[in-house]
Amino acid sequence: MIQLFIILALAFSKPLNPKKVLYAINCGAPSNYKSPSGIQYEKDIQTDPETVVADYSLNSEVSSQQIKYTREPQIYLTERHAYKTFSYQIPLQKEGTYTLILKFAEMYFDTKGKRVFHVKFGEQRVIDKLDIVAKVGKYASNDEYIEFEYVAGQVFQNNTLCVGAVQDGKLLVNLEKTKFDNPYIHGIVLYAGGISETDYEEYQYMKDNWEKILSEEKIKEELERQKKSEAKVKRKEKVKFRNDHLNELENEFEVDDQSQSTTAPQTKRAGLRTLITSPLGTAGLYISFFFGMSIFTKIISKISKAKIKVSEKDIPETKPKQEKQTKEKSDSGEKKNKTKESKEKSKDKQK
């Protein structure tokens, strides 16, 4: 039930759209910073010599603390404060509705009433007696959303003209000191649109249900760790199976002591590739190759021997044939000579 409630609440909340952030300052920071939500914060170029920068990231006791109600704790680890009233000038563009988000967190005092100050647009007070510890306690973000209208070079907040709020096209934000310690600030965001278009509802829900959200996130992280652990175990088992496959094949060749006969291993699915690539399979391929070559050589030698026998049989057949032809020629010559002699004898008798 709690999970369903959280899911529904987050579904209807609106995250802050980074594309509509016109200007953002990470107060007290020496370099630019891009938040996990995609907001590009510029480094602090405040030149007022009477202001002081505090970098809590250098203090391990403070930086190790979890800052509640935010997913961007980096913003709250640096601040700018002063021993008097000081100001920031925020550039304004075209006329319209804007929301200024001022980011605070108490990193020093842990008792309410120790630090109290005002926030003003020019001469108009827009936040009265701001006490961070009284609102959220120590090590917790407190973001103040202030909607205003910029019309004809003037600023109106709650339909009230803020006198002296615009100087050279810039909004003058004054952090006014009181007798209760020094004013300070951690971050400033200028958003194009009213409060209803920002992440104000999501931020308020986060503040009201912080412990529930942390619990849900811990459960989610634990589930992700379990999945990664299971995947890691499966990978190890797979590697172990590959390494032990040769031993498994060797164990499958069992010799029966009674019959002294060797039993052939059972063929497994997808085992052919592993068998071929294993040392035993490679040796088998080499043996098969040499065995095949020996058989091939024997066949070639048999064929050559057969050809030699055939040639030997042909030689005696040709000799008698030649002698026969020679004899026939001699016989025909003798017949011719006899015929000639007989003719000559007959002629002599006639004479």
Briefly characterize the structure.
The chain contains 7 helices and 16 strands. It has 351 residues and is an alpha+beta fold.
Task: Describe this protein's structure.
The chain is an alpha+beta fold and 351 residues long. It has three domains: 2-208, Jelly Rolls; 212-277, no CATH class; 279-324. The protein is built from seven helices and 16 strands. The longest helix has 72 residues, at 279-350.
Provide the CATH top-level class of the largest domain.
Mainly Beta
Q: Quick check: average pLDDT?
A: 81
Summed up, the helix count is 7
The string of secondary-structure elements, in order, is HEEEEHEEEEEHEEEEEEEHHHH
What do we call the CATH homologous superfamily of the largest domain? Answer: Galactose-binding lectin
What coarse outline follows from CA principal-axis ratios?
A: elongated
**Helix proportion range:** 40-55%
Structural class based on helices, strands and sheet pairing: alpha+beta
Terminal CA distance: 158 Å
Any guess at the CATH architecture of the largest domain?
A: Sandwich
The CATH topology of the largest domain: Jelly Rolls
Walk across the major sheet and give the strand order. Answer: 1-16-7-10-11-12
Organism: Paramecium sonneborni
Signal peptide: 1-18
Membrane topology: Single-pass type I membrane protein
Domain Malectin: 21-188
